[in-house]
Amino acid sequence: MSLEKRLQTFCPASSTDPELKTEANLKTNSMITPTTQAAIAVLNDIYMGESYRTDEMKIPEETKKKLLDRLSAAGLIKLEADKDPQQLTSYRLTKRSPQISLLNILEATGEHLNCNHPTTEQFYMRYGRAAQKLGVVNHMTRLYLEEIKLCDL
After folding, report:
1. What is the rounded distance in angstroms from the CA atom of residue 114 to the CA atom of residue 55?
2. Which of 99, 100, 98, 126 has the alpha carbon at shortest distance from 32?
3. 8-30 pLDDT tens trace
C-alpha cells in the first residue's frame, strides 16, 4: 500500500467531525479540510460584515451554527448584546484579523491539515501567501513521514 493510501487511513481528506456538514463544492483534496475552509469563510464574513463567502460556499445553517458556537467557545468571536445568534453580522472578532492564525482556527474547530497530497496549483491560487507557507509545511511533513518506516512504529 502506498504512503498516500496509508496516510489517508490516518488523516482522511475530509472533515474529522461528521456532525459538521459542508457542501460538495468545498475542496476535500486540499490541505485545509472543508470544515476549516468553512470556518475561515465565517471568520472573514464576520470581519467584512457580510455573508459573501459563506453564501458562495453554500454552508448549511446547522454547520454555520456549530462553527459559530465553536469559534465563540474558543474566544475568536463574540456575540454582540441583543443580537440574533443566527446572523453572522451579530458577531465581532475578539482580535484584529491579522492576529487570528490558522492554528487558532484549527484548535477552535478540532480540525487538522491534510498532508497526504502534494500541494496543488489551485491551492496556491486560492490561498496566495498563506499557501506558500503551508506548501512548505506540507512538503516537509511528507518528507519526514516518508522517513518513518514500519519497523519504527
Report:
1. 25
2. 126
3. 433 333 344 544 544 434 555 68
Residue 130 CB-half CA count within 13 A: 12
All three cell numbers of 108: 477552535
Closest C-alpha to 106, from 65, 82, 144, 76: 76
DSSP 151: G
Cα–Cα distance measured from residue 15 to residue 138, given in angstroms and rounded to the nearest whole number = 18
Instruction: State how far the alpha carbon of 136 is from the alpha carbons of 27, 28, 75, 98, 99, in Å.
Output: 20, 19, 29, 21, 21
For residue 29, what pLDDT is reported? 61
Buried b (16+ CB within 10 A) or exposed e, 25-59: ebbeebbbbbbbbbbbbbbbbbbeeebebbeebeb
Strand ranges for the chain from DSSP E: 77-79, 91-93
Q: Nearest-CA neighbor of 93 among 108, 67, 72, 115?
A: 72
